[in-house]
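Internal tracking record. Fields below are filled automatically when a chain is submitted to the structure queue. Please do not edit lines marked as system-generated. If the sequence contains nonstandard residues, flag them in the REMARKS field before resubmitting.
Queue: standard
Priority: normal
Entity type: single polypeptide chain
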Amino acid sequence: MADSTFDIVSKVDKMEADNAVNQARKEIEQRYDFKGVGASVEWSGEKILLKASSDERVKAVLDVVQSKFIKRGITLKSLDAGEPYASGKEFRIEIALKQGIDQKAAKEIGKIIRDEGPKSVKSQIQGDELRVSSKSRDDLQEVIRLLKAADLEVDLQFVNFR
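SYSTEM-GENERATED OUTPUT FOLLOWS
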């Protein structure tokens, strides 16, 4: 009998992220407390660029953007928001979307699987994702439960369950 497997990935749906940015832009354009402060949200290549006239206003724009991402089902673990910085007369924050699992997090996940998971389960790092295999599907489901309960700094999705 062949081993059952699944992949652990960390990806953000680009369309959902784009919808969240568009919703945030609409709310910022309509809200009274953002009138006249130069508040804006826009894509800048692969990053999201937030602008406003003061440090507090750009942090308020960040709160709006984060709430829209949560409503679209994207966790804040997938966002890498920088600190506000001055650029001319305005303040800016850049937000990067985390795609893939970095080596440090992959090793941490592999260690959790080895230490706390069922003994028949094996994991291997394949680029920016992990492949988990076992003869028992129940053991694989136990690993998924274990990783969902673990407090990791990476947002995980479980795909290709075979």
